[in-house]
Amino acid sequence: MTSSPRIGIYPGTFDPITSGHNDIIERASRLVDVLIVAIAANAGKGPLLDLAERTALVEGEVAEIAARSKRAIIKVESFSELLVHFAAARSASVIIRGLRAVSDFEFEFQMAGMNSKLNPEIETAFLMAGDGQHFVSSRFVKEIGSLGGDISRFVSPPVGAALKTAFARTGQ
Questions:
Q1: 14-35 burial code (b ≥16 CB/10 A, e <16)
Q2: What sign results for the dihedral spanned by CA atoms 37, 20, 56, 143?
Q3: Which of 75, 90, 100, 134 is catalytic?
Q4: What is the strand order of the sheet 7-12 is part of?
Q5: Domain covering 7-135 assigned CATH 3.40.50.620 in the classification
Q6: Which of 38, 35, 87, 98 is nearest to 66 (CA)?
Q7: Which of 97, 138, 142, 156 is catalytic?
Q8: Coil, strand or helix: which one is 73?
Q9: Buried b (16+ CB within 10 A) or exposed e, 65-100
Q10: Are 95 and 122 in contact (CB under 8 A)?
């Protein structure tokens, strides 16, 4: 009898994907057989990059991580429904969330509780930000980049180029 693969979901807006996200993806891929990096459409957050741009950038980052992964299959998908519905439709047993600071925990704890009430079969696992990643956030990267600051330590060259293009398009 073979067991089913353990499927995990790492959701986010990824506007843009940062070195902190990449760290969580790489570490989460060691915990499951299949990791789905799930990009939320999340128009309510007013993303700088559209869903197609974010998806392409995440796919590029994940391709490099997957090449190094010894165990997990890593996929990229977008979604616009409730996260627990998305996860259940893919037979996921765990939602993986990254935590940078104590301030992240309160929000994530509440969200995990709500998700548990909506679907108690899906667990939430928290991964602490890796060394040197505690302060990296998409919001700060966009702010620094829009003001002409150097973001090369926080995003890959393709992501940096996409942000420059987006800043020019929006007049930032």
A1: bbbbbbbbbbbbbbbbeebebb
A2: positive
A3: 100
A4: 73-79, 34-40, 7-12, 94-99, 123-128
A5: yes
A6: 35
A7: 138
A8: strand
A9: bbeebeebebbbebbeeebbebbbebebbbbbbbbe
A10: yes
At 93-113, the pLDDT tens digits run 999 999 987 778 888 999 999
Helix 157-170 and helix 51-68, axial crossing angle in degrees, nearest 10: 170
Which residue is listed with tokens 């293009």? 165
Picking from 46, 41, 47, 54, the residue whose alpha carbon sits closest to that of residue 83 is 41
For tokens 């990254």, name the residue.
Answer: 98
What lies within 8 Å, CB to CB, of 43 at 6+ separation is none
Token pair 């899906």 is at which residue?
122
pTM value? 0.93
Clarify whether 100 is annotated catalytic.
yes
Q: What is the CA radius of gyration of the chain?
A: 16
Mean pLDDT, to the nearest integer, of 46-69? 92
Indicate if 138 belongs to the active site.
yes
